[in-house]
Design goal:
There is one protein chain. This protein has no helices and 21 strands. By secondary structure, it is mainly β. The termini are far apart.
């Protein structure tokens, strides 16, 4: 999981199957973990980002690559708001829409580092209520129907996580008529 550490050792084997420690240059095939120190017989790998990678160790003509290592997100600690399907856009911290528009919004759970844990069902609300209507007041997504210009807050809440309050600005809509 993100934040976890793993102690890794470099060991040399000779043709008689004798073994012993060997100093190695350590690296990762994708920047999803840190290594401290990067040249030694043993290093500490710290997972920083979800995904898959391999660990590489070398010393002169000797080298080896680990099997695939998988880093999972940490435990859910916060809610996030997305304007597209989970995993395709960064979380929204301020929301600005036109008064005549509708927008599909998605609720997600994030770990302490802001990594996506997954979709989550929440209770949706808008304050003040005349600002916008919500098609679905509970679920993993909703449609925000902006009604009148002004500012307020879009609120997401679910058990076990702190609520999320996103500043909402509804701008005047398109010109409808001239008199």
């Amino acid at each position: 999981h993100v934040g976890d550490t793993l102690r890794v050792f470099a060991v040399r084997y000779d043709k008689e199957e004798d073994r012993g420690p060997i100093e190695a240059n350590w690296s990762v095939t994708r920047p999803l973990a840190t290594l401290e120190p990067s040249r030694c017989t043993t290093t500490r790998l710290r997972a920083t980002t979800p995904g898959t990678f391999q660990l590489y160790a070398s010393n002169g003509d000797l080298s080896d690559t680990s099997g695939t290592l998988v880093v999972l997100p940490g435990a859910a600690t916060q809610l996030g708001l997305l304007a597209s399907a989970p995993g395709t856009s960064p979380p929204i911290v301020n929301l600005q829409v036109g008064a005549d528009s509708a927008l599909v919004l998605y609720a997600v759970a994030l770990d302490a580092a802001g990594n996506l844990v997954g979709a989550i069902e929440v209770d949706w609300s808008v304050e003040p209520t005349p600002l916008a209507a919500l098609l679905l007041p509970r679920g993993g997504f909703t449609v925000l129907d902006a009604r009148g210009a002004g500012s307020g807050v879009l609120r997401l809440a679910t058990a076990g996580l702190p609520p999320l309050e996103v500043p909402l600005a509804v701008l005047p809509g398109r010109l409808a008529a001239l008199r």
